[in-house]
Amino acid sequence: MMDCTDNHYRTLARLISKHAWLYTEMITAETIVHQKDNLDRFLAYSPEQHPIVLQIGGSNLESLAKATELANEYHYDEINFNCGCPSSKVAGHGCFGVRLMLDPMFVGEAMSVIAANTDVPVTVKCRIGVDDHDSYNELCDFIYKVSSLSPTRHFIIHSRKALLNGISPAENRSIPPLKYEYFYGLLRDFPDLRFTINGGITCIGEVNAAIRAGAHGVMVGRAAYNNPWQTLGHVDSTIYGKPSSSLTRRQILGKYQVYGDSVLGKYGQKPNVRDVVKPLLHLFYSEPGNGLWKRKADTAFRHCTTIKSFFEETLRAIPDSVLDSPVGETPVGRDELFADINSLLPPPYEVREQELLYA
């Protein structure tokens, strides 16, 4: 997520969950190429963040090839090509992001170029449609063409279409209706491919419900950012069958403080205290003291120059019982979210070979 899943957030996320796959913000291929002498600022991360996926965007094949080649030095576990971002800064500039869904032949070529310049798996993140190009068959045409023309075998599907005119990126996450039936139709119609569901899934109970319904994987974005403790705190045990971190939030903040103070001002004036603390502002979501903690944070940002001093000034707002308690019970969520999905599936897709040949 742009402006969200930066190095600071991923450091926090990995302290909470040892096994969740982490994604970078989308980074344009042009940025990587133009910043080739300053790449650590954009691509460096700690080894603890594995498994981690680099998400790139772009519409120039030469830049995509060069960016992928430059990123190899950083040993990401996977490279994801963004064909789903509806932001006008992306979709309206250089024609990339979700607009690329209208040109699956180019996406197939781009994925081949990316794959040719890396040894790690390559994946596509997309929506289920764009504007009036929102039928199930059009989505299937996109999946079929991209997978036929490239080594892509894994698609992350945001189960909403994108509306590019008149609404904001935030509204694009809520106004277009979710059509999970399209996602589960893809599982039926493309059994040799892997699909990860995204969009509208808010807690670990709903993640489990999606998997029980057949999803190969689940991507959780805003919920993991807006409520990281409850969302990520259950991933290791519930999804991966591994022991959960036994760290309390006080212990996590102690480790995060060491990290935060070590990176302040690493690139001139950046990052500053506000940058480093930003991912923490949702750590006490719905807990006693959360509102007071945020008000104290607003004041502390004006004068604190270290993460240590920031914590000393603000954490007194949070009760010890919250700071020292383990993660709570697994949230159940909406068990019925996918209960009747098989009865809602669209008619099966029939491959139209001529579209692949002449599109």
TrEMBL record:
Q: Where does FMN bind?
A: 55, 125, 158, 198-200, 221-222
Q: Which cofactor does it need?
A: FMN
The organism's place on the tree of life at top rank: Eukaryota
Keyword NAD assigned to the entry: answer is: no
The record's top EC class is oxidoreductase
Q: Which GO terms describe its molecular function?
A: flavin adenine dinucleotide binding; tRNA binding; tRNA dihydrouridine synthase activity
Bilayer-crossing residues are none
CDD domains linked: DUS_like_FMN
EC number assigned by the record: 1.3.1.-
Q: Which residues form the active site?
A: 85
Q: Which SUPFAM superfamilies match?
A: FMN-linked oxidoreductases
Query: What Pfam families does this protein's entry cite?
Result: Dus
Q: Which residues form the DUS-like FMN-binding domain?
A: 1-306
Which keywords fit this entry according to its UniProt record? Flavoprotein, FMN, NADP, Nucleotide-binding, Oxidoreductase, RNA-binding, tRNA processing, tRNA-binding
Q: Which family does it belong to?
A: Belongs to the dus family.
Its annotated function is as follows: Catalyzes the synthesis of dihydrouridine, a modified base found in the D-loop of most tRNAs.
Q: By its UniProt entry, which PANTHER family does this protein fall under?
A: FMN-LINKED OXIDOREDUCTASES SUPERFAMILY PROTEIN
Q: What is this protein called?
A: tRNA-dihydrouridine synthase
In the record, what lineage is assigned to the organism producing the protein? Eukaryota, Viridiplantae, Streptophyta, Embryophyta, Tracheophyta
